[in-house]
Amino acid sequence: MTDPGRPVTGYPAPPPPATNGYAYPYAAHPQPNQPAYFNVAGNPNHYPNPYPNQQRATFLRRIFAIFIGCIIIFGTIVFIMWLVLRPQVPQFRVQTLTLANFNLTSNSMISGNWNAGFTVRNPNSKITLYYDHVEAAVFYKSESIAVTTLPPFVQGKKNETTVTATLVSLSEYFNDRNGINSDRARGTVDFNLRMVARVKFKAGAWWTRRRILRIYCPNLSVGVSANSSAGSLTGGSKNCRVGL
């Protein structure tokens, strides 16, 4: 027989017996001084999120993933455009270089007129080049003698342009007087030409930002003796080094 005092399994236990005539529930009612949390609807079972740092970390990870994704997309677009356009730097070549009114005084004051003729070739078949500022200088070894600015010009696709530069020195102080006089005694003086150009590349509606071209044309031998004030380039035309 079943014990009548034992609760049936699967059913709630009977309430606790009353004491002094009063029966208490299983869970006590919150006291007035205890905090209660309610959501907007007044639900007392709602509590603040115990993981705010975890949500913030998740948000930062998403922002970082979006940023990396944008970089990858942009890099892919640039790479595809490079594959399609294959941009190349222009080619510079010194065709002529003449010197006139050359003089170097005993107190190291140098003067003269240098006239240089270049051919500039755009090797790109899909890109037009816009030169908006070109500066040229003539050097003896590493010492600058004269500087000038060339007018801007445009080069079409597969175009070859002739550019001239006139550089004038009017009684500029020159440090290496002995070196240049030694070269004149041998009959030739080696000059260097350097150019800096701001160039933009354009293909259809695509433009690049301005790029800086650095052109270096070394060891340009000019036949000028100690008793002469004029001379011209010897040994034929010379290629220049071009870099971005």
Automatic annotation (TrEMBL):
GO terms for cellular component: plasma membrane. It is a single-pass membrane protein. It comes from the Eukaryota. Keywords: Membrane, Transmembrane, Transmembrane helix. The keyword Transcription does not apply. Its main location: membrane. Residues 118-210 form the Late embryogenesis abundant protein LEA-2 subgroup domain. One of its GO terms (biological process) is defense response to other organism. It is found in: Membrane. The chain crosses the membrane at residues 63-85. InterPro entries: LEA_2, NDR1-like. PANTHER family: LATE EMBRYOGENESIS ABUNDANT (LEA) HYDROXYPROLINE-RICH GLYCOPROTEIN FAMILY. This is Late embryogenesis abundant protein LEA-2 subgroup domain-containing protein.
